[in-house]
Specification:
The complex is a heterodimer of chains A (about 120) and B (about 110). Chain A is about 0% helix and about 50% strand. By secondary structure, chain A is an all-beta fold. In chain A, a hairpin with a 6-residue loop joins strand 5 (about 30-40) and strand 6 (about 45-50). By secondary structure, chain B is mostly beta strands. Chain B has no helices and eleven strands. Chain B has strands at about 5, 10-15, 20-25, 30-40, 40-50, 55, 65-70, 75-80, 85-95, 100-105, 105-110. In chain B, the strands form two sheets. In chain B, strands 2, 4, 5, 6, 9, 10 and 11 form a seven-stranded mixed beta sheet that branches. In chain B, strands 1-3-8-7 form a four-stranded antiparallel beta sheet, with no helix packed on it. Classes of the chains: A mainly beta (about 120), B mainly beta (about 110). At the A-B interface, strand 6 and strand 11 of A face strand 4, strand 5, strand 9 and strand 10 of B.
Chain lengths: ~120, ~110
């Protein structure tokens, strides 16, 4: 069975600090998909990134970067020079293979990390 | 383009009643899935539909059901409501491609 662990329940930083959100996953499949979502107070989950298990390249998008390491089953997310608008709950999620070999069309979420960026 | 639309945004129901929630996916998205979010259990998968067929189902009692129409719009129904069903219910749609699931703003259900 798949499992996603976000050990950090809450993180509080001061604006302009860098912050890393940890995500560790478990799956028995060799093909799977990892996601990060942001949930602001409005409640809507905002898609940030999707990564396939066979693509271990790190990714950078503006102030956001992701470090995917299969050897440690981790998919960590770093925000550089944090801003107050980054305050939200961040979720890591996993989707692994279904019976047919494709996605099982189900996201397994971690419990989320509440990030508070103070001015 | 329009996002995923969920109606209603807020709902208050009494124990024992039933409720129907609606989700309109992004145009062209044929996959629709539903999630329940509570403070205690977090985000949990309910079910996923594609072309009116349920492809996967989470570990929820039979009181939770759903369906998808030919225009990809989806509804979920909860019968015999219990206090523990109070939650934010989120719907997501997906193209089936390389992007992620797009979520709606959710329906916040309160059972009293």
């Amino acid at each position: 069975a798949q499992k996603v662990t976000q050990a950090q329940t809450e993180i509080s930083v001061v604006e302009k600090e860098d912050v890393t959100l940890d995500c560790v996953y478990e799956t028995r499949d060799t093909t799977y998909y990892l996601f990060w979502y942001k949930q602001p107070p409005s409640g809507e989950l905002v898609f940030l990134i999707r990564r396939n298990s066979f693509d271990e390249q790190n990714e950078i998008s503006g102030r956001y970067s992701w470090n995917f390491q299969k050897s440690t089953s981790s998919f960590n997310f770093t925000i550089t020079a944090s801003q107050v608008v980054d305050s939200a709950v961040y979720f890591c999620a996993l989707s692994d293979q279904g019976i047919s070999g494709g996605s099982n069309y189900k996201l397994t979420f971690g419990k989320g990390t509440l990030l508070t960026v103070n001015p | 383009k329009a996002g995923v639309t969920q109606t209603p945004r807020y709902l208050i129901k009494t124990r024992g009643q039933q409720v129907t929630l609606s989700c309109s996916p992004i145009s062209g998205h044929r996959s629709v899935s539903w999630y329940q979010q509570t403070p205690g259990q977090g985000l949990q998968f309910l079910f996923e539909y594609f072309s009116e067929t349920q492809r996967n189902k989470g570990n929820f009692p039979g009181r939770f059901s759903g369906r998808q129409f030919s225009n990809s719009r989806s509804e979920m129904n909860v019968s015999t409501l219990e206090l523990g069903d109070s939650a934010l219910y989120l719907c997501a749609s997906w193209t089936g491609g390389l992007d992620g699931y797009t979520f709606g703003s959710g329906t916040r259900l309160t059972v009293v």
